Automatic annotation (TrEMBL):
Residue ranges, compositional bias (Low complexity): 100-113
Identification of the protein by name: Uncharacterized protein
Region of interest (Disordered), residue spans: 100-128
Origin: domain of life: Bacteria
């Protein structure tokens, strides 16, 4: 076989055509690359502008949420103080009522425990 026959055989094979097609596709995409870079640069500027707007909106939203949460926190603290003061006021009232109810019983026990028991005489002295 001659060199020309070998080249003709290779150039008529399916793998050769696939490789040639892939190379042509790569060249086509590389030619589009400068235009694509320009488009991406323009979109980058738009993205930066959008990010700036979103950042401002996000900061406003975060500040609004923080203000609302602080207001809610203050409201819950006031409500908690009210509940605790009512509970401690009721507890103090109950404690006073319990102490007043307990005083007469304590006084009655104190008067009965002040009596002296009668002295016992030992029987051992009589036996001897």
């Amino acid at each position: 076989m001659t060199l020309a026959t070998e080249v003709k055989k290779i150039t008529e094979s399916k793998p050769f055509y696939a490789l040639t097609g892939a190379g042509d596709f790569a060249v086509e995409k590389l030619r589009e690359l400068p235009d694509r870079v320009i488009q991406l640069q323009a979109r980058r500027e738009e993205a930066f502008a959008y990010a700036g707007r979103v950042q401002g909106k996000a900061e406003d939203y975060a500040n609004t949420v923080a203000e609302r949460l602080n207001a809610l926190y203050e409201e819950m603290a006031k409500r908690g103080r009210k509940v605790v003061s009512q509970a401690s006021g009721e507890a103090a009232l109950e404690l006073t009522e319990v102490s007043e109810a307990a005083e007469p019983a304590v006084a009655a026990k104190a008067t009965t425990s002040t009596k002296r028991p009668a002295a016992r005489r030992s029987t051992a002295s009589k036996v001897s």
